[in-house]
Design goal:
14 helices
Length: about 300
């Protein structure tokens, strides 16, 4: 039952993050990207600590926990968001989507070698199905890949830094609540991004005065709902079911982003996108352990999977 709640939560988070792609595309037409990102994460930090205050979860980090916080802030907040923003401005949407689709497989690989998480044959099939689904969704809209560019390298560095951060989050969550860890990571990362924005976009904060009520409404959704609540929930899932299993749900991002782009940006949806969705759903069912859990409940002799070897 606990796994089922985590699965439902992760699907809802992927929906929020998918819609957030359209929100971010909308926001960068009004604000400079790095400045907007730093303010978005800073706003998310405020809500995260308000929630933690009412949950009575706030405490100062201890010794080694600071290393995980700084490492997580550098990889999950600063490097991931910086390289993603820069990379998407230099490559095609098709190339970017396919490279981002490698995230779950990259995370699972690191989880096996760093966290010693077990990946069964069934779950490996899930990662393959998910990758096929993401490829179909991306190519179904563009029809072709763009030429390889430095932007592709930047997007790969973006998902690599994010995958590394998932390892740090899992390790840190042994002694620190993942929600509190999220707050500290965002706090440190947002401060660094503010400094970077002053250097790269010196007039960025002056541009914030041009926002309309609609723009700020989208900003609030992106900062408070998608970023603050979304990351708290996702990092908690990593703490509960492991980095590899949680990462497989990232495949839903591409499809939900497509739905959001269709609803809010007027982009087209094609039959190939729904074929891709079938593979993505199959990938999640196989890769998340849902199929194995169902078969165990039906009396099949599948031994429980131990997520981590201490």
């Amino acid at each position: 039952m606990k796994d089922l709640k985590v699965i439902i939560t992760l699907i809802l988070v992927m929906f929020l993050w998918g819609i957030n792609v359209s929100a971010l595309k909308y926001l960068v037409t009004y604000f400079d990207p790095i400045t907007m990102t730093s303010m978005r994460i800073m706003s998310a930090v405020i809500l995260v600590f308000i929630i933690l205050f009412f949950l009575k979860q706030i405490r100062l980090p201890r010794n080694r926990e600071w290393l995980y916080i700084i490492g997580g802030a550098a990889t999950n907040v600063v490097l991931h968001h910086y390289f993603l923003a820069e990379g998407l401005s230099r490559t095609s949407a098709a190339n970017g989507g396919l490279i981002l689709g490698l995230g779950p497989l990259l995370t699972a690989t690191l989880a096996v070698f760093i966290l010693k998480e077990k990946i069964t044959g069934v779950r490996a099939m899930g990662f393959i199905f998910g990758g096929i689904g993401v490829s179909i969704v991306v190519l179904g809209g563009s029809g072709t890949l763009g030429k390889i560019s430095f932007g592709d390298v930047e997007i790969f560095l973006s998902i690599l830094s994010q995958a590394i951060s998932f390892m740090l989050i899992k390790k840190a969550s042994r002694t620190m609540d993942a929600r509190l860890l999220t707050g500290y990571m965002m706090l440190v990362g947002s401060v660094v991004l503010v400094i970077v924005s002053f250097i790269k976009e010196p007039g960025g904060f002056a541009e914030l005065s041009k926002g309309t009520p609609t723009v700020w409404g989208v900003f609030i959704f992106s900062a408070l709902i998608a970023t603050a609540v979304g990351h708290m929930a996702y990092n908690s899932a990593i703490q509960t079911i492991g980095a590899a299993r949680a990462s497989i749900f990232l495949n839903f991002n591409t499809f939900f982003a497509l739905i959001g782009a269709s609803l809010f940006l007027g982009e087209s949806i094609y039959p190939a996108h729904f074929i891709g969705l079938i593979f993505i759903v199959a990938g999640v069912i196989f890769g998340s352990g849902t199929l194995e859990m169902f078969m165990r409940n039906r009396g099949k002799q599948i031994p429980p999977i131990k997520e981590e070897i201490e």
